[in-house]
Structures are given as C-alpha cells and as structure tokens.
What we know:
The strands form 4 sheets. This protein has a 5-stranded mixed sheet. It has a 4-stranded antiparallel sheet with strand order 1-8-3-6. The C terminus is likely disordered. A hairpin with a 2-residue loop joins β12 and β13. Helices cover 51% and strands 19% of the residues. The longest helix has 71 residues. α4 packs antiparallel against α9 and α5 packs antiparallel against α8.
Amino acid sequence: xxxxxxxxxxxxxxxxxxxxxxxxxxxxxxxxxxxxxxxxxxxxxxxxxxxxxxxxxxxxxxxxxxxxxxxxxxxxxxxxxxxxxxxxxxxxxxxxxxxxxxxxxxxxxxxxxxxxxxxxxxxxxxxxxxxxxxxxxxxxxxxxxxxxxxxxxxxxxxxxxxxxxxxxxxxxxxxxxxxxxxxxxxxxxxxxxxxxxxxxxxxxxxxxxxxxxxxxxxxxxxxxxxxxxxxxxxxxxxxxxxxxxxxxxxxxxxxxxxxxxxxxxxxxxxxxxxxxxxxxxxxxxxxxxxxxxxxxxxxxxxxxxxxxxxxxxxxxxxxxxxxxxxxxxxxxxxxxxxxxxxxxxxxxxxxxxxxxxxxxxxxxxxxxxxxxxxxxxxxxxxxxxxxxxxxxxxxxxxxxxxxxxxxxxxxxxxxxxxxxxxxxxxxxxxxxxxxxxxxxxxxxxxxxxxxxxxxxxxxxxxxxxxxxxxxxxxxxxxxxx
Length: 481
C-alpha cells in the first residue's frame, strides 16, 4: 500500500470509535498488515461452521450474524462502522456459529490471526481494546443464548401444561354438566323414598347400604373385565326387583356387594325396596361425579402449583436456600406429558431429609429441565429416564440417566459447545446443555458425563452451604468465546 493511502487509512482508524484511544503507531502497525475487504448489500459473507481466521475492524457499513435456533434463523448480533468483529486475541471461537451477511455496503480491515502473536507482544493498547470487545461479545452471546433457551423452555412448558391440563379440565366440565343433569332425578328419588315412611329397622338397613356405598371400590375390582362382570351381576339383581339396570353402574363403583343388597331386601318392604334402591343409586352416582370433579380440580391445582414452583415466578431473583427435591419433582411434573407422548418412563429416586443449597431456584430448575428434556429425547420409545438426588459428603449430587444409544466418544467433548446438536435441523437449538453447564458453574458446581450404549449419565454436583468446595470454587465464565 502506498504511503499516502496508508496514511489515509491510519487517519480512518484514528477516527474509529473503538480505536480512538489506541496510539497512532499501533494503528499504523494494523494498517500495514491489514487487508481491506468490501461486501455488497445482501452478500453472504460466511456460512455457519466456516472457519474464522481474521480480526475485522468495521470501517463502514452494516452486517449481522443469524443463528438457526429450532424454529429458523434469528439475528443474534450485528456490527456497524466503528465496531470490531471476527476472531479476537485469546478467543476460543474457531468457527462461525451462524450465517453472516452484509445488510448494507460494508468495508472492513481484516487482520489475519497469523499476526496475533506479534499483536499481543508489540501492541498492548490495541490488544486490550480487542480483549474488552471479546468480553462484551461473550456477555452478549451468553445473555442471548440464555434468553432464547428460556423462551424455548417456556414453549415446551406451555405445550406440556396445555396437554396435562386438558384431561382434568375436560373432566371437570363434563362431570359438572352430568351432575347438574342428574340432580333433578336424585331429588325425585329421595322425595319418593321420604314418602315411603321408613320404619326404624328399614331406615337402619338403608343407612347400612349407604355406608357400604361410601366404603370405596370393591375388593375384587381388578380389571375392566371384572368391572363389566360386576355391573352385569348387579344389573340382573336390580332388574329382578323392578329397578332399571342402568343404575347398576353407579353401584358397581362402590364397596356394595350383592350380599348387602340381599340382607336389606329381607328388612325393607317390597314396595319400599325399589324407592330405596333408586335413591341409593342416585346418591352414589351424584357422589361419584362430585368425587371425580374434586380429583380433577386437585390435579389442575397440582399442575399449576408445579409450574409456579418450577418458575419461581413469585419470588425475587436473589440467592436463597433451595429445596432441590421439590424443584426436581416440579420439573418432572411439567415434563411428564412429553415423556408420555414419547412412551418414555420417568422415574425418580430422592434421598429424604436433604439440606437445601444456596442459589436461584428458577435457574436450578432450568438445569434439571434441560437435562431431563435432553434425556427424554435421547431415550428410545419405551425407554426409561431416571433422576436421582442424594448427598455425597458436603455436596448434593443429581443424576439424570437415560437408556438411549449413548454419546459417541468423538462427540462427547463437544456437547457443551454453543449450537452443537445431534438432533435433526429444526428439532434442537444446541443451547440446552450449554445453558445447563453455564448455570451449574454459576452455582459453583460441576457437571460430568458418563456415556456408553444403553446408559448415559449427566451428573451435577452442587456444594452445600459452608462447604470447602463452595468457598474455593468460583463460577466459570462460559459463553461463546
């Protein structure tokens, strides 16, 4: 480059927003070794996975990087004139995580990474600027990754919750309608029974039948076939005494036996027996519907409580004692529908009486959600995922084990790399395990992998308050750099 052109380039670098404080001699060093590059609007600069081999000082223009995160490409960062991009000194990034494209006509000065040893040795101020840019970029990517993964988790949570809530909510609605429809017949049956003017022995016999109805399911109830046989037998007995066979189903779900009916029939007058049996069936049926509504409403309450506990949505974002057993139970509840849909059995072994750890409950639950969700995906249909929690010395250890095909040894070292995934395009963001790893380090813990065909274990160790590990360890930096 001619001396006059070189001087103009140094002037441009001196006016560059990021390099304004760098001594002019170092800017001249950069200008002498750099290469000017130009990109037209819309030009594809690089594909995801392409090697990054140069530092770029953006002199003019606008370009961005878009990363495929499940539902499609999303912009995660952009650069304009006055910014610094590309590979930076001390950066661990080697390949582009996404697609880079010029938005406007763009001019950059590229410095090959081959010059980095000389840069670090001779240009301390310029190197310091690059390091600050790298740290800012790492924070940006980390924040963006965590935000995207939380949104993805929220989507999975919403889908699973909708599926889990559908059955009990439908049960409440249908049983409430059936209860309303049944009430007039129940009232009429008891009015008819009241008009029979039961004697003391007859009233005692009816109360005994009612108490047997409330005793719960019959002892011999084992299968749908047994239940059908029981309805048939009760229906035949009722029909012989002038009562509709349809009432048999209500009585079949109680602890009432034909022997109990026979003993009551010996005490009740024939004209009173029919009214008593109708009132009994109506009362039992009404109570059954009310019990079904109560069970379904309780299930809805449990699911909402699990989601509330999973998200810690009503608590401040500050470290506090966290019950890991409760958090894991809530996480299993919100992911159980996905496991059912994939025919995967979820199991848990929780050691009782464990002390709490200090941390952010919502972020700890994010760890369990990512690891369990990943294990469900890895397990084959009909497979199993087991989650365990136990104390080992001054730490709590959580294990998530699946019986899937395992992680090949050559890929095992990459599972915590941003955007790395073995799932088909559109089915994984490549961020779940990265976020889990980052959050574990933030809580001064460690995460290990042990994998072979038929058994993959992710093991998270979190120190207890006051332990030597908790005092000695510091959070890892994580991030994309």
